[in-house]
Every structure is written in structure tokens, then in C-alpha cells.
Specification:
This protein is of the alpha+beta class. 35% of the residues lie in helices and 26% in strands. The chain is built from eleven helices and eleven strands.
Length: 356
């Protein structure tokens, strides 16, 4: 749903704005991923519900005309936070969380991690598994969110993709780990898109799970990686706690939501002929015809004072800048926050300009 196989290589974007007294107070862009749309917005309006509803209608119409059926949206939250003002708006706009499990991103500094003195790597091997094979394995085991994330992060076969497996005596795969090696600079390599999956039907002991995780991290140390980032679903909470035990920190949580994208009930809109004189309607028709027209309030407060969105966006952008300064590359940040690389660069440029 979020990462379709037929996603186009270049962005297919359309944007809509709302204005009050010639000032932009709200903006929504919709990117076609396959045929369905993915949203990004900003709002500077004390009463955002009406404005967002109008803009969302425009996005829905664009997606429907493109043959799509739904809109998706992505929210970053503080770790442990399950609700905030932004999610409240999305709820009222008709968005639904498609997964009851939170996704989290985390990072481990490999320079500060050391394996046990006698790490047993028996039955742990690198393998040339196909991307389809790993994707199917995740789906078959019920790890649906991680399967979508994997498909998005591992789109093509590359030498920088690393796959590790652990097999039992019958040569069955009982655990799989995967990550990508990214070159930050000539003397600094990073691990990206790391995750570990334990196949539930084999009921591995916790000690064996930890041994496999440590074996995967040891393979990164052998490759002289500086640090590694992971994005996972808390449905596999046992895997998450094992990773925290090994030193993963800088944890952020994430929320996905989507509404059904259908033509909305138009009964809530007033017909202009019921409230405006005919002479004024003819004057308006010189500028716009057959479209929804938002009439703003005459009074409004400063940017973000009531909505809280500005604070949420600034917090996210500061976190992106901090992670970039810590060595996470633009491509990895784009994957972590589900933004385009161009948007990440814009955030970094703006934040750097503000600091200067």
C-alpha cells in the first residue's frame, strides 16, 4: 500500500495552497505512488479543519482522476507517544491507522559495540537470497509491515546488500538478517535498513536469537562499518528489546494512516445562490467556475500558535539535522522519514541557514 512495486522513479507531484489576504496559510502536496497518493502538508491556520478538508478534497479528486483509490500519510511521533494534535486532525479527516503496531527507528554506534569474547557463529552464514524470497518469507510469517518496509528499502539487487541466515539441522532458514552498506565518505561506511527476523514457527530460544543478532552485528564490524540504522515494527517486540540490549538508541516512533479516497458527500457545502446575491455570483464567475471556494475568517492568530503543527514540524526537522550531522546520509534520512531526498536537502539547507 505504501511502497508499491510500480512506483515511478521520479516524483509525480501536485500541490494545492489556501490563501488568506494574499498570504499562503496552508499547503498540501500529493505524490502518486503507483496510482494511489501520499500526502505532505503544512498548516498556518487557527481553524485548520475546514482548510485541510478543502485541500484534501482536491488531492482526493486528483488521485481518483489518476485511477487511484486511497491517500496515505506518515507521522513521526516521540517514542512512546501514541497520540498528538496532528494525529487528532487526521482522525477527524477520516484517516485510519492501518497497523496497530508502532514502527520505530533506532541507531547503534558500532564503534562502541563489541561482541562477546567467545561469539559462536555456527550455522550463521551470508547467503545470496533473492529480494522476492525475503519479502515472501516476511509476508508468510505475518510480518506485513516489515515486508512493506523491506520492499521499499531494497528495491534492486546490489553488491552492497547483505543477507545473513541461520539454519537448523534440516537446513531450514529459521532466522534472517539484512542490511545495506552505504559509503558516507571515503573512510566511513554506514549500515542502513538493518533488520532481523526470527521465523515464529521455529520458536527459537532467546539466547539463540541474541546469538544471531550478535553475529549480524559482528559481520558489520568485520566490514568496518561506523554505525547502523534500523526501522522495524514493534509487533516483533522481542527483537526490539534484544536490539536495545545491544546498545541501539536514538529511538523515534512512527505512525502510518490512510483514509478511503472516494468522492465526498457534497451536501455539507452551501450553494452560493442560497447565500450570495446574483450580481456577486456573476462577478466571482469571472475568476472561478464550478469549483469549491474557501472564504477565510477575518481574524487569525500568528503562525502555529494554536495548531501546534509548527512545533511538531520543527522538532522533526531538528532531529533530521542532528542525525545528518551525526553522519546519516540524505538517502538514509529519506528512507527513515519517508520524504523525498529533495525535501530532506531543503530541510537541511533551511536549518543551516537559520543557524548561520
Amino acid at each position: 500500500m505504501f511502497f508499491p512495486d510500480d512506483r515511478e522513479t521520479g516524483p509525480n507531484l501536485k500541490g494545492f495552497v489556501a490563501e488568506t489576504e494574499s498570504m499562503i496559510v496552508a499547503f498540501i502536496s500529493v505524490e502518486l505512488r503507483g496510482k494511489d497518493g501520499h500526502l505532505m502538508y503544512f498548516i498556518d491556520e487557527p481553524n485548520p479543519q475546514l482548510v485541510l478538508t478543502e485541500l484534501l478534497d482536491r488531492c482526493a479528486q486528483y488521485v481518483i482522476e489518476s485511477g487511484g483509490k486511497r491517500l496515505t500519510y506518515f507521522v513521526s511521533t516521540e517514542f512512546g507517544q501514541i497520540y498528538n494534535q496532528e494525529i487528532a486532525w487526521l482522525d477527524r479527516l477520516g484517516f485510519q491507522n492501518i497497523d496497530p503496531y508502532v514502527r520505530v527507528s533506532a541507531r547503534l554506534l558500532l564503534s562502541e559495540w563489541n561482541p562477546p569474547e567467545q561469539l559462536n557463529t555456527e550455522s550463521i552464514h551470508t547467503e545470496s537470497l533473492s529480494l522476492d524470497e525475503v519479502h515472501r518469507m516476511l509476508l508468510d510469517d505475518g510480518s506485513i509491515t516489515n515486508a512493506y518496509i523491506f520492499r521499499f528499502q531494497f528495491r534492486t539487487v546490489k553488491p552492497s546488500n547483505v543477507m545473513l541466515t541461520m539454519r537448523n539441522a534440516e537446513n531450514e532458514i529459521i532466522a534472517v538478517a539484512y542490511y545495506k552498506v552505504i559509503e558516507k565518505s571515503k573512510d566511513r561506511l554506514l549500515g542502513s535498513a538493518f533488520n532481523v527476523h526470527f521465523r515464529p514457527k521455529f520458536e527459537l530460544l532467546r539466547a539463540e536469537k541474541r546469538r544471531f543478532l550478535q553475529g549480524a552485528l559482528w559481520s558489520m564490524k568485520q566490514l568496518d562499518l561506523h554505525d547502523v540504522n534500523s526501522l522495524m515494527s514493534l509487533k516483533e517486540v522481542d527483537t526490539f528489546t534484544l536490539m536495545v540490549r545491544e546498545g541501539f538508541d536514538q529511538i523515534n516512533s512512527h505512525y502510518f494512516g490512510w483514509p478511503k479516497c472516494s468522492k465526498r458527500d457534497m451536501s455539507k457545502y452551501k450553494n452560493a445562490r442560497d447565500v450570495l446575491p446574483e450580481s456577486l455570483i456573476r462577478e466571482i464567475q469571472k475568476y472561478v467556475r464550478g469549483e469549491h471556494l474557501y472564504i477565510p475568517q477575518t481574524e487569525r492568530t500568528g503562525w502555529g500558535k494554536k495548531s501546534g503543527t509548527r512545533a511538531e514540524i520543527e522538532r522533526r526537522n531538528k532531529e533530521i539535522y542532528r542525525q545528518y550531522m551525526d553522519g546519516i546520509c540524505v538517502a538514509e534520512l529519506a528512507e527513515m522519514y519517508f520524504l523525498s531526498e529533495e525535501r530532506i536537502r531543503g530541510i537541511l539547507y533551511q536549518h543551516n541557514a537559520e543557524l548561520q
